[in-house]
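re: ur question from earlier - yeah i can do the single chain one, its not a big deal. heres the input i used so u can compare w yours
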Amino acid sequence: MTGTNQTTQTARTTGAARTARTAGAARTADAAGATGETDATDAAGAGGGPRTISTLLVANRGEIACRIFRTCRALGIATVAVYSDADADALHVREADTAVRLPGAAPSDTYLRGDLVVRAALAAGADAVHPGYGFLSENAAFARSVRDAGLVWVGPPAEAVELMASKTRAKELMAAAGVPLLAPVDPEKAGAADLPLLLKAAAGGGGRGMRIVRELADLSGELTAASAEAAAAFGDGEVFAEPYVERGRHVEVQIMADGHGAVWALGTRDCSLQRRHQKVVEEAPAPGLGDALRDRLHEAAVTAARAVGYRGAGTVEFLLGADGRPYFLEMNTRLQVEHPVTEAVFGLDLVALQLRVAEGEPLPAPAPPEPRGHAVEARLYAEDPARDWQPQTGPLLTLEVPDEPGLRLDTGYTGGDTIGVHYDPMLAKVVAHAPTRNEAVRLLARALERARIHGPVTNRDLLVRSLRHPDFRAARLDTGFYDRHLAALTAPPDEADLRLAALAAALADAAARQDGPGPTRFGAWRNISSRPQVKRYRAEPGGTEHEAAYRTGRTGPVPETGERVVAVRPGHVTLEADSLTRHFHLTVHRDTVYVDTATGSYTLTALPRFTDPTDRTEPGSLLAPMPGTVVRVAEGLGAGASVEAGQPLIWLEAMKMEHRILAPASGTLIALHAAPGLQVEVGALLAVVTEPTDAATAPAAAETTDLESADPAEENA
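and the output i got, formated as tokens:
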């Protein structure tokens, strides 16, 4: 399944959000010039009055660009893509009618260059620009530059974006409007009674610049670290503090407003399942909310929208305490990653509504349609949750999700594409809609389980286990879900299942080696006595090794472990074990075997019979866990320096995330090969630390922190 045919209405609207104050955004402000004029013409371009959009440029990439193009095709609007050199053959480029190159690969040189994007729109003959989410979608200066170029801005008024750009200013505005919020805490006056505290970046989200402080002694250091991280991610080091709500729920309200006085509150969404303060699973409506609380959230969201003169699609986010009390978090002045669950429940196309409002038209009715059923979305990432969520890169060989009623796939990738190092590692969003929550959760979990995903490690297994976890099934939701359950959710597969997968891989390999086409059953197996044939495989990414042994008998292979071989072909094996008949579908890519079954998928690496004696790495070696750029090393670090176990030594930046390379043990640094600015490939030797003789040599231990949210696949806050 490569997408869904969703209901498209002849309605259209707007979306954008917090200003991403990155270096690229600063260049946009310089190019466009900040004007003090009002934004009365935002919805119609510089000329004023309603305008019909005929050609739309999407100032974004990947999944969200493809999703916007889908609506444009349904509405008869021509499409223009922009792309970096790294995205020259990306899906969003292939799907657009026209594409314009932005020279370079890094976001700061390409997708964050508002001046280049506006120039591209004019060169392609576009009459409107849609920012998607991330990148420049929350940049008021970019919105003004689009308008000043005579183009329609498919987003909220620049003034509204500006007012909501700073969380501190937004909270002041919401307090004046009577919206409930957490009282800010002055870090210089904080005492033990104020703990725990949550430090947050004022100019951005997605977990960057965010720290939880539980001890007063840690406050000063965490403030410094949070400010530095915020400055690196958003170009603004302002950080504020507020009480940290233990076991809080992240609940938000989708709004849609036009320029004629109508504001819709399109229900609630729960986004509590988060990793690194970024959303993983979202659903609509938020389960377990009483009518009174839901009405209060709707009213607060509408009040917030009216307080800033909002137009278009936006989201007002709240934190619900354990006592059910809501607190305003922020207003995202754009389309959200999780907007498909609202679309499914209300039967709307929010992008079509964005376009309608941008053309100056009213919403199609005074009130939104009635919601129906329940929808759940899971974000499929190329990352390894068991290893601190490390992003993964490389060829994506296969991405196939079952095409069943009620399922929707939004993606920026197809099989054969490559996942690079420059952008967020989200591969796709898989959405299920059904009459009830239980049915939607069941449908989504089963679809993910049956999906064929070959290539880098993904979070697919984590998603399936999360959806089936008793706490999630019972809607016991809060933002600490993965803090409590991650170990169980990332436990390695059952050893018996891995052994069967390895056996299937060995039998399929033997069938592929037979002369002529592979037999449907066992006609080509020779009837000779033989010693057991043994093949070894390593399970990825866990690293456990498994042997598969079988003999060739009169009717075919006979496993040494007692299973009955029902059928075997190079790409398919059927085994009977413990009275159950199981089917294994196998795909081989070089030394890697992908084994897909009805209840799980396994990745195996075929191992040589004998270990290569030259395959050695010096003990204590710290190897780069992924391709990236060294951004800094620990102060005073050099050969001969003493280090402590777990001490951060080297900082790598890759896929817009910061990875801290930690000392594996206390000892002495005897070699340092990393230096700021050095580009490294996965497995590159960064440093060597003397370690105890029993310490394992492995890719460097790393902690991961997202650097910025200005990516289309990662609005996430």
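The first helix runs from residue 23 to 32. not sure if urs matches, ping me
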